[in-house]
Amino acid sequence: xxxxxxTDPYVTGLRMLARRELFSIQIRERLVRKGFxxxxxxxxxxxxxxxxxxDDRRAAGAxxxxxxxxxxxxxxxxxxxxxxxxxNTNDAQEAIxxxxxxxxxxxxxxxxxxxxxxxxxxxxxQFRRLYGALLRQGFEASAVVVALKSKTALTPQFNxx
Length: 161
Hints:
By secondary structure, the chain is mainly alpha-helical.
């Protein structure tokens, strides 16, 4: 089977979108990487947006649900990542509010800890590593400390932090 030549960025963009929801910036980068000219990419993205095939708000909602339910990420990280995809702050906040509406931050944090821990936290180094990892995942510092303290071996060294 010989590969089909892809001469139309519009059709190529539609094929990309048929697989999964993508942001306009992702489509742009992928089309340019495939060797299409900037002008033809701009025209294709304009047409795709007019027809509703590309909708960054819809893609933001899908990404926020994925981040909350599958990746188990906190709100902050999801907001930062949506900003990196070029989603404006209001649309990103709205998508995050909808995606995390039925999700308790404490329950999400507990699920992440269950994935990472096989027993209680026994050393301060382990506590610090988990603390940093959970902050990078987008959870609030105060919630992380409470969750980690609940998973520590009962020793006075953790109660001072």
